[in-house]
Amino acid sequence: MDMDDKEQTRQKILAAAGRRFQHYGYAKTTMSEIAADLKMSTGNLYRFFPSKLDIAEAYALAHESDEEAMMASIGALPKSAAERLIEHHRALLDYTFTMIDESQKIFELAQAIGRERPSYVNRRLANERVYLSSILKDGIEDGLFAPNEDINRLAEMIQCATMKFRYPQLHNCFSLDTLRRELEGTMDLIFKGLIKR
Amino acid sequence: MDMDDKEQTRQKILAAAGRRFQHYGYAKTTMSEIAADLKMSTGNLYRFFPSKLDIAEAYALAHESDEEAMMASIGALPKSAAERLIEHHRALLDYTFTMIDESQKIFELAQAIGRERPSYVNRRLANERVYLSSILKDGIEDGLFAPNEDINRLAEMIQCATMKFRYPQLHNCFSLDTLRRELEGTMDLIFKGLIKR
DNA sequence: AAACTGAACATTTTGTTGATTGTTCATCAT
DNA sequence: ATGATGAACAATCAACAAAATGTTCAGTTT
């Protein structure tokens, strides 16, 4: 079995596991079921993934591409940096809120990964900063935003300030409308700043 | 028994319950224990509080006075509105983080109230906005901050942007130093705004 | 009549048991 | 030798019984 075959099997495992995760949730999906779906033995799964959690993580990683595409397309929009920045946050809020709202199963998966693999969350935040930084850089070059020597840090701080909207479920605030309005106001605050000009 | 006696008994109950809450936590404190401490019957407690959770809420409310005093004293500091605003957030971050860090029991209490009585959380946030608004108003009058027609909404948005620092335990970020640095940066972001002047 | 009690009730928590599940590894098949 | 298996193992979960707890209220005390 060469490396290509191995990769192909990994993909098949991810697909089978994903189907189960979506239908029955992370906890109620068993390794033997995944194996049975693929007509292989339970033990064999461990030649491709070190643990069930790693399957979940790889599955989540694969499905990041949706978010990735969304962020990329917003970053490329023919709009001002300010508009793209707010659109970025609006889109992510809607995306995660809706996702979690309509699929308890996906939420369970996300919770399990977040709990057992905190580093995964950090990787995702770091990845988002790539897109944020790009928008910020544009804005600065266009003369819209004030110059800043550490754009990545700036992106980090924007993430801090919008944390509430990234993990809406944590703050038991269950109305998307409220969150949307709060996001508008918060972004406005960030944009305008408080200091009189 | 007149109203004063009744109030006095309420206070005694709160004191007894508080001792138990602090030592053993909310869940491990029973109504019969509280009653026994006061040499009264279990049933009698219910003539003073409708439920155990209401005792917890009243206890928390009584201990808000610490926070209240802190916010009041910071609001009255002979410093600029900007400095008071950041000091306000610094103090609350330190206060809640340290409190939770050194007493798992208090955290448990807070969680129970937050879960079963979401309205309590909102009341506290609304109360904080009184102090925030006062600082903002000062800042605007001094010409430091830009005028704003809805100061309470402005305070709300600042709360949104600093939510991460108000409930640090929710975001599994366990280093106070990191949080402090992030808070500085976030406040800076809020102050300066992004738009070039 | 008003203040209070403690047994009664329903609900929740705890403890325990057996079954299930994630993971490993000696073994078999190719 | 390499790929794969499934029984074995320890850890976790599910289900049920037992105990404890929050709450109520008929009844007692003052």
TrEMBL record, chains A, B:
Gene3D superfamilies: Tetracycline Repressor, domain 2 (1.10.357.10). It comes from the Bacteria. Residues 7-67 form the HTH tetR-type domain. Keywords: DNA-binding, Transcription, Transcription regulation. Residues 30-49 bind DNA. Pfam families: TetR_C_27, TetR_N. InterPro entries: Homeodomain-like_sf (IPR009057), HTH-type_TetR-like_transc_reg (IPR050109), HTH_TetR (IPR001647), Tet_transcr_reg_TetR-rel_C_sf (IPR036271), TetR_C_27 (IPR041478). PROSITE patterns: HTH_TETR_2. This is TetR family transcriptional regulator. It comes from Candidatus Phycosocius spiralis. The lineage of its organism: Bacteria, Pseudomonadati, Pseudomonadota, Alphaproteobacteria, Caulobacterales.
